[in-house]
Amino acid sequence: MIAARDRVPNVTDAGVDLAAVIRNTSDVESTPAPAAVFNAQVTDPLFKPASPSCNRNQRTPIYMTTLPTSLSTYPISATVIAIPITVIMSAFTLPAFMARLFRPLSSSARMGISADTGVGRPAGVPEGAETATIAAGCFWGVEHLYRKHFDNKGLYDARVGYIGGDTSHPTYRAVCTGKTGHSEALQIHYDPAQLTYRQLLEFFYRMHDPTTPNRQGPDLGSQYRSAIFYHSPEQEATAREVTRQAGEQWYGAGGVGKGEGKGGIVTEIVPAGQWWDAEDYHQLYLHKNPGGYECPSHFLRTFPPLQ
Fold it and tell me: Are the C-beta atoms of residues 259 and 211 closer than 8 Å to each other?
């Protein structure tokens, strides 16, 4: 299922006189059709722009408009010809405040290239580091919040990627279909002398809504499910204990979170399988694009400490 972050507004929402833009063509025959015929063509509800495509060198969607085949029979308006091209092009650019609401399907020329397998420790992560893997919806916001909160507090590295699926070398496009079985996830490497696994999981339950199955905010699909992928029996025990406490004290009917999604915690607790790093442009995405999409369910809830 296409998520809210993968949808973009229709070009007609930009307030452009689309009829005027369409009339601006040099391929015109000498015998024009009546103006009434042209107006009926433009106002026809079936006459719509084609689907947006994404310029892979920038985050702005570029719209390709399909013109009617009989356009050459329509007159040109001198006023239309005088419309500055900059005005027309600006209509196809999402305003900055809207960029946070829509997530493009691609942001890089690497779209479609297989992700790399996460084998061993990333460069710069010392021996003795431990690993935690969680999924809490759109991985851009998950990474951003963990880095913001735990940088210089024992966090060595955090990488976004894919886990829990049935196929090898998944791509972002494939995972977005929801058919590969993968979650968008975050893999954290940390110093256990400064940061505990329990702290990471308590933060996990505070920064997203664990009560909505296969969904975070407007993002729908199994790739957005809430999950903890444990790497040892000790991690599994801690995950189940923290989940039980969060369910009772934060997300239960009488908890401070008032049930949030009203269904109780639905977070999966499963063994960590093969990890695949996501494509490079996904790493540190919101650091590189501070105005980019953030799932509205990703924020730090002010719950009291678990008892």
Answer: yes
The set of catalytic residues is: 138
CA distance 158 to 132: 9
Rounded Cα gap, residues 206 and 246, in angstroms: 9
Give strand pairing partners of 175: none
Q: Residue 15 carries which side chain, given as an amino acid letter?
A: G
Q: pTM of this prediction?
A: 0.65
CA 122 to chain centre: 24
Rounded distance between C-alpha atoms, residue 168 and residue 180, angstroms: 9
- 254 Cβ contact partners less than 8 Å away, ≥ 6 residues apart: none
Cα(41)–Cα(66) distance, integer angstroms: 13
Q: Both tokens of residue 303?
A: 């719950």
Q: Are 231 and 272 in contact (CB under 8 A)?
A: yes
Q: What gap in Å lies between CA 275 and CA 135, rounded to an integer?
A: 12
Separation between Cα atoms, residue 107 and residue 281, nearest integer Å: 7
Rounded to an integer, the average pLDDT of 210-231 is 97
CB 200 within 8 A of CB 215: no
Considering only CA atoms, give the Rg of the chain.
24
Whole-number pLDDT of residue 127: 93
User: For 4, phi and psi rounded to 5 degrees?
Assistant: -60, -35
